[in-house]
Design brief:
The chain is an alpha+beta fold. It folds into 2 domains: 214 residues, Chloramphenicol Acetyltransferase, CATH 3.30.559.10; 202 residues, Chloramphenicol Acetyltransferase. It is built from 14 helices and 16 strands. The strands form 3 sheets. A 6-stranded mixed sheet has the order 1-6-8-9-3-14. Strand 15 and strand 16 form a beta hairpin. The mean pLDDT is 93. InterPro entries: CAT-like_dom_sf, Plant_metabolite_acyltrans.
Length: 434
């Protein structure tokens, strides 16, 4: 065997309802509809030290807990579906829509999990074999799939593929954390009450915006024309993970006077400056943009509960010139630009939301750094009953200049994964921590 071999593909059904609202159909909000044609998000969790738990035992506990957690997150078992008469997509989570359950893949591998988990440079060829691959060329498509892989040398990998229309990052991590808790303790977390009802998103003309976003971002529905990234195309980028300790982050913050940046802002600014410099943009007066999302649940009027699972994020664009970022003083300037974008999103989270799709479509190629994730996401707390993971990564990083953050293993640390063209990565690695 070379790489990964699939042993069995089965379906995990949802525990019978009744289910909480929205019941049978999730009519996507304008927050969700912008993602319809994009590929599934693929998360990978690596657990090298599981020798004391049998693989059949791991599979059994994952399946039984998944059945239970899906009764709270039943849209995750639904199908992303196009309704021509409404000119928009929905998630069908009716009895017929969720009756098949979700795809659950069991596999085995002769890869070296310890090497994959400890190497700062991503082994992309291994990563993509350890996560479910859902090719979306036409709707309907499943929203969620799971793969668990046993390594012949010991250890287990858990791969999750989720379509972004069903949840934003905060919603996904709520699902994963609740699932892990049930799997580990066999008990439902106290107070678990996820909210899926998009009717909570109140905005004049919101339905029309959702239709317009669907038309602009997914004009050929039910054909999605989703970007397809073959392994050959994806290998043109190098992906590497950097582990930032608390003292490094504190040092960056102290050198951003007078901005007093947050952890997210200070790390993002440092990354922006480093990318601009390794690309040789000190004399380039063209645009340089940081694109990112920020949670707007508490800033809406009325505010929305933190238990809301659907997408509820403002779209932020911090616009600078490349030379401003790359030259001396660029770090403080980048901190200021990022803080200003966040301030605007906090004070008026839906201002200009009608133009979000246009702004994304007009982003100039090679001039954008995409900032994803958050230092607040507790990726390394995902203990399903056989210990915490040694490594957690986003396997679906597809853009030159894509950056993903999660909270690190140790208190105050942050994990930052970066995708860049190979010609720039070595210089970036040398400069980011210098």
């Amino acid at each position: 065997m070379v790489g990964v071999r699939v042993l069995e593909v089965s379906r995990v059904a949802v525990q019978p309802g009744p289910y909480p609202p929205p019941g049978e159909t999730v009519q996507l909000s304008f927050f969700d509809s912008i993602w319809v044609s994009l590929p599934h998000v693929q998360r990978l969790f690596l657990y090298p030290n599981t020798a004391y738990v049998s693989f059949p035992g791991i599979v059994g506990s994952l399946k039984s807990s998944l059945t239970r957690i899906l009764s709270f997150f039943h849209p995750f078992a639904g199908k992303l579906t196009y309704i021509p008469s409404a000119a928009r997509a929905t998630i069908d989570c009716s009895a017929s829509g969720i009756c098949e359950g979700i795809t659950f893949i069991e596999a085995e591998s002769d890869l070296n999990i310890h090497s994959i988990a400890t190497n700062e440079v991503h082994d992309l060829e291994s990563f993509v074999q350890l996560v479910p691959n859902i090719t979306v060329s036409e709707l309907p498509t499943e929203v969620l799939a799971v793969q668990v892989t046993s390594f012949l040398s010991g250890g287990v990998a858990l791969g999750i593929a989720m379509h972004h229309t069903v949840a934003d990052g905060k919603g996904l991590w709520q699902f994963i954390e609740a699932w892990a808790t049930i799997c580990r303790t066999e008990s439902v977390p106290s107070g678990l009450s996820p909210v899926h009802d998009r009717a909570l998103i109140k905005y004049p003309g919101g339905d029309k915006i959702a239709v317009e976003f669907t038309r602009k971002m997914s004009p050929a529905l039910p054909k999605t024309k989703a970007p397809h990234y073959s392994i050959q195309e994806r290998m043109r980028l190098t992906r590497r993970t950097f582990f930032l300790d608390a003292s490094t982050i504190k040092f960056w913050k102290e050198h951003a006077i007078p901005e007093s940046p947050s952890t997210f802002v200070s790390i993002s600014a440092r990354v922006l400056v480093t990318i601009a410099r390794v690309r040789g943009l000190a004399d380039d007066n063209g645009p340089f943009i940081a694109a990112f999302l920020t949670d707007c649940r508490p800033h809406l009027d009325p505010p929305i509960s933190n238990g809301y699972i659907g997408n509820c994020v403002s779209y932020c664009f911090a616009r600078m010139t490349a030379s401003e970022v790359a030259r001396p003083g660029g770090f403080v300037g980048a901190c200021a630009a990022l803080k200003e974008a966040i301030r605007k999103a906090t004070e008026a989270p839906l201002a200009g939301c009608e133009g979000w799709a246009d702004e994304f479509l007009k982003l100039p190629a090679g001039r954008v750094v995409y900032l994803a994730g958050s230092p607040r996401f507790n990726a390394y707390e995902t203990d399903f009953g056989w210990g915490k993971p040694d490594r957690v990564e986003l396997a679906s990083m597809n853009h030159d200049g894509e950056v993903v953050m999660v909270r690190g293993k140790e208190e105050g640390t942050v994990q930052v994964s970066v995708a860049l063209h190979a010609q720039h990565m070595d210089a970036f690695a040398q400069r980011i921590l210098s």
